[in-house]
Structure formats: C-alpha cells, structure tokens
Write a structure and sequence with these properties.
2 copies of one chain form a homodimer. Chain A is built from 12 helices and 21 strands. Chain A has 415 residues and is an alpha+beta fold.
C-alpha cells in the first residue's frame, strides 16, 4: 500500500489524557482512535494487526475442534435472571438499555447464558456432545475508570470459547488442550517467552483455574514465578494449601507485575443446571452438561504486544502480527529517480510481500521517525546514495545497524 | 467438515413467532438463532455464509480505494449534538445507555458523526483527500416492531462506506464508481438479475439518491421498473419533475415489491460544517470537506438471498456464498463400506473443495431432506447402489434430476 494513500497520519504527540504507553503509541502511529476512555476505533493499520491476531487465534481454536459463531450484543434478561447475573448488585458493570415498547436489554460482557440456552435446541443426547463454540466478538463493560488504553476497555474485542461436555473429567482433559493452544497463540503473536500459564483460584466452581499472565510493569496483576519449576502463581491466590496441592512447598518464587491476557474457568454445571441444558446418557438417564469457558482479550493482547515489545522510538511488531512485513522508504520522491522506488515496490509486491510504501513527499527524518513509530519489522530504504551503490539499505526494526543488499539478496531474505 | 461434528442440528419446525420465510429457513437449517425479535446470533453455517458475503464486499470496496476501519458501538454525544442527531425526537430509534459515573452514551446506528470528527486529526490539506473509510460492523436500531427476520434487525451487520472529497463534482464521480461496485456485489452474491439501482429522493442534502432494490414479494418497498429503459424509480418518489429530470416522460413502468439492500446518499457539507472538518485548498483557503455515504445491509443481504432464491424444499445458496460447495451424503454409515465414503471425502478435501460430509447415523430420507433445507449447491450421494455401479450420484440443488458420475468426472466437474 502506498502510504500517500493511507488516510491516517502519524502524530508527534499523543492525546494529553492518554496515560498508557500502548494507547499513546497506537494513537500516535495511526492504529487506533480514542473515542472516549476505554473505547477505541480501529484505523486501517490497527485493523490489519487485529485481523492477523484474530486469524492466529482462529487457527488454534479450529485445531482443537472449536466451531466459530457470532453471538449478539443485545441480551434478553430471561436466561441471566435464571443464573442470578442479571442483578446489577451481582454484576456491577452491565451496560443496559431500554427497548422501545417496554423492557430492558443488556449489552453482553460474556455469553455463557445465551449459549447455554441456545444449545438446548441442539444437544439432547450424549451423541450430540462435545460442543466447542467460540467467537471473536465485541464485549461491553461499564467500567468506572478506564485508563489502561487497549488493556481495560469499556468496549473490547474478545475471543471466548465454551466447552459443553459429558462430565468433569472430559472438561479437565479439554482444559489441558486449550492451555497448549493458548500458549501456541501467545508464542505465535510474539509474547510466548514472557507469558505464563498461572495457577489461580477457581472461584465458585472449582478449586483452581488457569490464568495466562504476560510480564509487564504496566500490568494490574502480580504473579509469583519459579523459572526453575516452570510454574507461576497469582500472588493473590498464594496459600499453603495451593503449594501443597501442586507439590511446590519450599520452592523460591520471584514476584513480577503482569497483564492477564487469557483465562480458563471450569464452570461445572452451574449454567446448565440453572438454564436446563441436559443430555440423555447411554442408559437414557438425564444428565446436566458440564461446562468450561476460555477467554482471550484480543484487544488487550494487541495492547500487551505494544506495551511489552516497544522501545523508545516506537512500536516493534512481531512479524506474525505486523500490519505489513516491509516498510519501503523512498528518499527519491520528486526526483528524476522516483521510478526506481516504484519499480522496487512493484517487485516486492509481485513477490507476494506485504509492503507499506512510503512515497510521501516529506523529509527523510520524518520518514525514518515514522517508520520506527509504526514498527514494521523490515525497513528497506532506497535513495540516491543506495542507487549509486547498486543496493538498498535493509534494516530490521530490532537491529541498530542497517545492511546494504542488492535487490536479489533482499528478495531472498524476505521470501 | 463432518456433519456429525457440527454442533447445530436442523429443525423440522421454525419457532412459532417467526413469520418471515428467510428467518424460518435460516433457523430451521441451523444458520442462525433467534435471540429476540430482530436479534439473531450466527451459528457456524450462518457465519460461513456471512464471511463469504463480507469477503466479496471487501474486495469490491478495496478495488475502488476503500480502506477498512472498525468504529465503535458506544458513542459520545458531543458530535451528534452538533449535527442535531442526538435528540430522540430527531432520531427516534436510538438505543442509549448510561455510563457509570455519569453521562449517557448512544449505540451507533451509523457513523457519519464520529468519522467526521476522527478525520479532523488526519485531513488538513487538499493533499490529504480523498479518503474512503469503510467498515463491516454491527449497528443498532431500537425498532418498535421487527418481524422481517434478518431483513429488519434491531442489531445487524452493515457495510458502511464514507467518501470525503474536495467538492461535489468529485463526490458525484465517486457515486458512479460505487454504483458499479454495488452492482458487482449483488451480481456476485447471486441476486444481480433481480436487483435495480433505483432513483429515489435525495432527502435534505441533494435532489436524488440511489437505492439498490431487489425484487421480492416480501419487500417493504415498491418500485417502478422499465426493463426497456433499464431504469427503476422508488414509487414513493415518482413525480413529474423526476421523470423530466431523467428524461423518462411517457415511459411505461411495472410496479413491483422490493427489498432495499443498499443505498447511496450525497451528504454535501452538512456533517463537515457542523463538526468542523475542513481542508486548505491549493490557494491556502479553508474549504469544507464534501461527503457521501454508501450502505449495504450485510445481514439483510443474507436474508434477501434466502428470501428470493429458496424453493419449497429449502434454501438455494449461490456458489459464491454457500457455506460449503459440496454436500457429500453417505448412505454407507455403519455398513462395512463406510470407509469408501471417508475416502471420497478425503479426496474431495484434498482437491481443495469445501465439503460438508453427512456422516450421521440417521435415515436416508432425513439426510436428503436436510441437504435440500441447508441448500449447498452440489449434492454428492454415495450408497451401496452407486458403489455397485462404480459411480456417485451428483445433483445440483437447482436441478431435479441427478447424474451418475465416476470419481474422476466428479472431481473434474468441481475443480
């Protein structure tokens, strides 16, 4: 894509009220627009990143049997009243809205209730199990404060997978499969090394659950890590009982700040009991369906990547989620050699490489600054100087020093 | 995909309160779930169709310079107050919701206001124009009644493109380009023959606008068609002046019911004036940006395809948007020949064909009924009988008579 056509512009300064690093960089780079605290629109570059993250998540969900659906924002109160979660005293961050003609609707912050109700039409026998619906869908939470940029939104993109199985044992097996899929996702989007499957309290349905925590000083959570034992514990849930249950007595832990990028909950039969989702087992006996839920904050994940991988010059996108693979920066605009840059652009695109082509008629300093801010993995610079040498200047966003390469060497490196 | 794994089931009966044909068939086939009137979740088959329609729309929007964004549902009142559209007396189908800590937010039914505001950060000079942001995003309308299934939703997927240009002449030129792109879309999704670019009143910003109307007895609109002149007029906007303006005096028109699947509006400078979106022209003079908006109801389009192309047995998907290309129906399940069907399934998938494989252990009648209901374009039946003949039975959903083909002939037909 020609950068002169891209309708967004970079900004020298972030909005004054934007305190989080991830949102400052994403706004300055033209990835997102802040509509209000915790509510961000995705601009073309930001949507490209989000689509790439979503594609990786879909692949991993499909690989473990997930079937994608798209549930609605608007929620009828009935199934939520059955589980007790309609009450604003129980769930204190509902957005609710009045339906013309009477009645109040909710804006979904999760989808256990409507999915459990929906599956009553589809699950009758043990033969209809298991079912693993998932979605990548926009959720809403009426947060009193939202100051962490993309990391705590009032409106945010979420991947939520649900498991409907015959019994707790099967749910436990699937929990392990999802843990592996989740770690694959975090690896593939570039934060595998700093993300930990973390033991935490299971809430009301089970003794323990799994959180996925990414190390970051900007995180709202604190975890305890043993690199030795390859284990992490949510600090708030640390207890003698937990250490005993996981055979971790006497282990030394390091305390670190972290961002929760995913979680897994065993739900047992709470929702299926309340809403009446049962199946007939092999003996014809009615049994409640056993459930689990598995979340990844997709918008938060994008924010976490920016928060943890950026440097003082800007964003550093991993190749897997970068909006483009190559940033071709031409210093030949408005010279008689400008066609040389066009030719190189065409050659790269024809080789199947995603290129953002900076063909804007502005100064070299501004171009290089923008390239660092936008954070595309490979920068290719073409100028009078490189032309004279019969080369282009190739630089990885993560390296300080550029390399001089001829066109064939360049294509070879990139394809 | 193996149908035995698909968590949704077909239904013999639609919900009693579902009066529209499109929703009856989509619910019965397991494409959508009705959450409440005008609010439908997409199940795996339905999401596949919606994704294919969306992909076609994206290709056509990208081809005319569209840049995809994703705006938010939650709306701050400020820009809407400037254009006068925040007032419930002016826009009577807002959903609104209260923000914890004070203030009221809207749920967007369109995005002129926030986009115009957003572009103030990015458009300063004539060099920054034009800009064509578009999105495929969920919109909300607080309809008093919603009885037309996917065709009039309270929550619905919409494609909305906006043009920001230097003057009205440029907007008019782009209007023509979008009209061509829209007709391409309607052709590609299978309703080109029955869809008309229709002259209608332009509302407050211009004398005329363009609607895209698809013939259907289920439509809420009425249009006047001249096949002779290849022209259509919205009946409500028919007038002597219009006939004169388009040189149509004395032309004979047929009256038909129709569904509005898309529309184009010239917005002039109403929004840019109110919100203050200007650019400096070549002489350094401040000018208001000239705008247009271009909508397609994506959910409504899916409903319209079902409404207009189905028959008494079920849905008839055009190949371009069908959830799968081939429905492989095995009558060999639980026989000693079941592996033959598995092999054929593998062979088709390995040839790059999208296949729904009915490997369910149910009767032949039910399988064939479901195949007609689900409406996949090509049905391939394998049974003891076809095996004996060394063939499979191949039937187009739109043909009455099947053909016997051997495997090579089959692959040749499909690849």
């Amino acid at each position: 894509m020609r950068q002169s056509n891209l309708f967004t512009k970079t900004r020298k300064e972030a909005p004054k009220d934007e305190v989080s690093k991830n949102a400052q960089l994403l706004v300055r780079g033209g990835f997102v627009n802040k509509e209000m605290a915790g509510v961000y629109s995705l601009l073309p570059l930001g949507l490209r990143v989000m689509d790439k993250i979503s594609k990786i998540i879909r692949e991993e969900m499909d690989a473990i049997g997930g079937q994608e659906v798209h549930m609605t924002v608007l929620q009828d109160s009935a199934p939520w009243e059955k589980t007790g979660r309609w009450d604003d005293k129980v769930v204190d961050d509902w957005f609710k809205t009045d339906l013309k003609g009477g009645g109040t609707l909710g804006m979904a912050f999760t989808h256990e209730e409507p999915l459990t109700k929906l599956l009553r039409n589809h699950i009758h026998s043990y033969k209809d199990l298991p079912a693993f619906p998932y979605q990548i869908q926009t959720k809403f939470r009426n947060e009193l404060r939202a100051k962490s940029g993309m990391m705590r939104g009032r409106e945010f993109l979420m991947k939520d997978l649900y498991s409907f199985m015959a019994n707790e044992k099967e749910t436990d097996e699937f929990h392990k499969k999802v843990t592996v899929a989740y770690m694959n996702i975090f690896k593939r989007v570039g934060i595998g090394d700093i993300t930990y499957a973390t033991i935490s309290s299971g809430g009301s349905f089970s003794k323990y659950s799994t959180e996925f925590q990414t190390l970051s000083e900007a995180g709202e959570d604190t975890i305890l890590i043993s690199e030795d034992k390859k284990v992490a514990i949510n600090k708030g849930d640390y207890s003698k009982t937990l250490l005993k249950d996981f055979n971790l007595e006497g282990v030394a832990f390091d305390e670190k700040k972290s961002i929760e990028v995913g979680d897994i909950y065993k739900l047992g039969t709470k929702y299926s009991d309340a809403i009446g989702l049962t199946y007939k087992d092999k003996d014809g006996k009615e049994q409640p369906v056993n459930m689990g839920s598995y979340g990844i904050g997709v918008g938060r994940l994008m924010g976490t990547i920016v928060e943890t991988l950026s440097d003082d010059k800007g964003i550093v996108w991993p190749e897997s989620v970068a909006p483009f693979r190559v940033h071709l920066v031409s210093l030949l605009v408005n010279t008689d050699k400008s066609k040389e840059a066009d030719k190189l652009y065409k050659k790269l695109v024809d080789s199947g490489i995603e290129v953002l082509y900076d063909d804007r008629n502005i100064g070299a300093g501004e171009k290089l600054g923008d390239a660092d801010l936008i954070g595309i993995p490979y920068r290719v610079l073409i100028s009078e100087k490189t032309l004279t040498a019969g080369k282009v200047e190739f630089k990885k966003r993560t390296n300080k020093e550029p390399q001089m390469l001829d066109e064939n060497e360049l294509i070879e490196k990139l394809v």
